């Protein structure tokens, strides 16, 4: 198969609660749409349901989704996926990890993941550039992004470049190789999904001393961050003209 024939792999690592998913989409669906890919252009593998991953050579790129799971739980499916990611990195597959995918890539390549000492980060927050990178050339400094996480990459893998940070996370965006990038923030989430999450979890977040009403007021569209997935494919896995 030529590059134009190869699909993009979406490694599906989990989903939101059923009521929220029913109103919006699966995490894999969010990624597919944000990346501008048609259903026939992707292969979604729900690894969290035990489905094995095929040979990396079958794909032109891979996205790793977010998940309600925790990387530190070392679930068998997650550790098997980490092993696959190491193999895929060695094979040169372009990969982009998001939230859980960001953490799992870091774990797979020698970094450290743990609960964020600064606590939960949720809502729309500003992301600050820390290094120059082709993916960030056209983004404002800083730029807003959607966030929803409790764990973080505490120590990036050896050789990783920290591209961006936020007030509560020093490693919001990493480049772990020439064609391997990851974000703790969610480029794929629309503001409606983030608002729904805040509404559904108002009591829980309130017990964590979070000002949920203020967070809801700050939620807004994040088109600059959303464009990262398409830009990643254009830079690292383009389809020949």
From TrEMBL:
Residue intervals of the Glutamine amidotransferase domain: 56-190
InterPro entries, sorted: ChyE-like, Class_I_gatase-like, GATASE
Domain of life: Bacteria
PROSITE patterns reported for this sequence: GATASE_TYPE_1 (PS51273)
A Gene Ontology cellular-component term: cytosol
Protein name according to UniProt: GMP synthase
Organism, as annotated: Bordetella bronchialis
């Amino acid at each position: 198969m030529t590059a134009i024939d190869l699909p993009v792999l979406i490694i599906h690592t989990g989903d939101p609660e059923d009521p929220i998913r029913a109103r919006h989409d699966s995490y894999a669906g969010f990624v597919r749409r944000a990346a501008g890919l048609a259903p026939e252009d992707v292969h979604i593998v729900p690894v969290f349901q035990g489905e094995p991953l095929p040979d990396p050579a079958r794909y032109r790129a891979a996205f790793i989704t977010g998940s309600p799971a925790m990387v530190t739980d070392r679930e068998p499916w997650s550790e098997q996926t980490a092993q696959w990611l190491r193999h895929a990195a060695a094979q040169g597959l372009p990969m982009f990890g998001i939230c859980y995918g960001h953490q799992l890539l870091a774990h797979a390549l020698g970094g450290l993941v743990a609960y964020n000492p600064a606590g939960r980060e949720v809502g729309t927050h500003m992301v600050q550039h820390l290094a120059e990178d082709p993916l960030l050339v056209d983004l404002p400094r800083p730029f807003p992004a959607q966030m929803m996480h409790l764990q973080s990459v505490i120590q990036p893998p050896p050789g990783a470049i920290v591209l961006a940070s936020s007030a509560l996370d020093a490693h919001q965006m990493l480049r772990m190789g020439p064609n391997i990038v990851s974000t703790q923030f969610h480029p794929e989430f629309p503001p409606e999904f983030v608002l729904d999450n805040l509404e559904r979890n108002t009591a829980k977040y309130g017990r964590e001393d979070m000002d949920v009403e203020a967070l809801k007021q700050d939620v807004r569209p994040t088109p600059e961050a959303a464009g990262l997935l398409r830009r990643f494919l254009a830079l690292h896995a383009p389809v020949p003209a």
